[in-house]
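TODO from last week: model UPF0145 protein CHY_0465.
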Amino acid sequence: MLLATSGRLDGFKVTKYLGIVTGEAIMGTNFIRDLLASISDIIGGRSGAYEQQLEEARNIVLNEMSERAKRLGANAVIGISLDYESVGQSMLMVVATGTAVYIEPEM
């Protein structure tokens, strides 16, 4: 399954547009991770714990979106958009949206 943020894939033509597909994940953070992130905020630097959680959530939503596209008969998803939101004080929501398509190599 090819995934792209652009609406076009070089060397391929879209032969079928199969619809909008999404993937969603809401991840809870935990007390220890919040504490470590607070320390990073105070002393400066990056929060590895939150970065790892963001990466995990992003992988979940892209895989979920790909599976939904496959069920529609797609072999690619184009125009992908990722959105990150905080929900409450300790939840992270990640949403991926794209267009499921069937592509073929250009001749």
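Done. Strands lie at 2-3, 12-28, 76-87, 91-105.
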